[in-house]
Amino acid sequence: MKNRNILFTGPSMAAIVEKEINAPKANEVQVRLTVSTISSGTERANLVGDPNVNMGGGGAVVWPRQLGYSSAGIIEAVGADVTDLKVGDRVAMAWTTHQELININHTDIYNRANVYPISDKVSYENAALFHIGTFPLAAIRKCGLEIGESAIVMGMGILGLFAIPLLKAAGAAPVIAVDPVPEKREKAIVAGADFAFDPFAPNFAKQVKEVTGGGANVGIEVTGVGAGLDGILDCMAPFGRVALLGCTRNKNFTIDYYGKVHSPGITLVGAHTMARPKFESSKGWWTQGDDIRALIRLTEMGRIDLASLIDEVHSPLEAPDVYTRLANESAFPIVQFDWRLL
Hints:
Elements: E1 2-10, E2 13-20, E3 28-37, H1 40-48, E4 68-78, E5 90-97, E6 101-105, E7 115-117, H2 124-127, H3 130-142, E8 151-154, H4 158-170, E9 175-178, H5 182-191, E10 195-197, H6 204-212, E11 216-221, H7 226-233, E12 236-244, H8 257-262, E13 267-270, H9 288-300, E14 312-314, H10 319-328, E15 335-338
Parallel strand pairs: 8-9, 8-11, 9-10, 11-12, 12-13, 14-15
Antiparallel strand pairs: 1-2, 3-4, 3-6, 3-15, 4-5, 5-7
């Protein structure tokens, strides 16, 4: 069966390519995508051929490359060994790629938590954001946020923006957004931030300490840039916790660790989404599956609405132009592909 895929065919180039797809194996389900979401940081790094895109860094960049990983759809077929899902089920998915039909291993214990049934109360647009939403959710958990503590988020890309309503749902007060782009600061306020500051303002750290009464208790660093970490450390309260959520692929920067980490007793937490338990959740360390199910519940109950933050929706046929923009625009919006528009 012919199946349309979005592939990165070379540096900064994307194309729609037809590939064959087989019937699902015994331990797989086949899903027809309805919506998939661009994760701009990871996809840009792969699109432009960043040699440090993988953890561990380095290595030859091989084309074509295929990305995606956060999507939603309808099950079209199930393998013989799959008993808990059926044809017609609406599902949110993790670790997918941008393609019309996809076969996903569902019964292998290492991979089964990639397909999650959703009720009619959850839109496909929201469901296609849940996997990405688990990234800032895990960072918040790892920082041990308690109700009433202050929180700051450095960088208002897709992960930073999603952190804002999640921090509010977790009881952070105030929630502070940081970004040099005025439009992103405005969007952060719409997303629920109590304050939004420019990190390049001469009194930036002073502003944060004034509205928090001495500094933020929890920090989520999402820029992946050394200057971002340096700046957020200036804003922390003594004994604050900072999650390194952004992928810092360039290691050539320095931090005054004695003055900004050791002396004030700051805890730095690695918050890459792969750094989580596979089987069992515990305090601050939830599995991917438990985090996605938490986002489903929060959405069903009206506590969060990540889809309200979507900026643009495109047909997958527009992918070449969309990815040209991603390669060249510094402030890329939150974009989804609607596969029903093929």
